[in-house]
Amino acid sequence: MVQLATAALDKVRRQVWQDLRRLPDKDAARRFKGARWALLKNPGDLTDDQAVTLRKLKRRGGDLWRAYALKEALRAVFAGDLTEQEVAMLLDRFCSKASRSGLKPFVTVARTIRKRRAGILAAIRLGVNNARHEGLNRRVRLIVNRAYGFHSANAALARIMITLGPIDHVLPHERQRDADP
Prior knowledge:
The chain has helices spanning 2-21, 26-32, 35-40, 48-60, 62-77, 84-100, 104-126, 131-146, 153-164.
């Protein structure tokens, strides 16, 4: 969901940049050019120059700042320390704000969240995400790339098994509870 919001923010940023390019002041678009990374990075990872750029964008306001605030609000929802009910309330609030924002990419994100709401809340409730599997897939791809030129797929598969070892996946319903009364 945060990836969708980040892509929506980038669409808004590109539109603002195109609008600035059409202005008589040709330097406006050039001054704006460095804003991309300041907007897409997590606030804690910004360099000093990017933090200054972000403060300038905040003072300017407008669609771009509204889009950035929406992206950060959604990112905060998935910080990982909220209950299912809190996430449900914040998602509803985000969808309401995004729908009223008038920013088409964020209206689309809100529509997607509403459509996928049950699955999102189930993932929060069960504590399931695909980060572990994505990380595993990335490591397998790196090994396969290194195995380019092996004479058989079995050799590449053997290298994967040697490198990653046995892989145990425990599904949420298979987890043991700490204390059953």
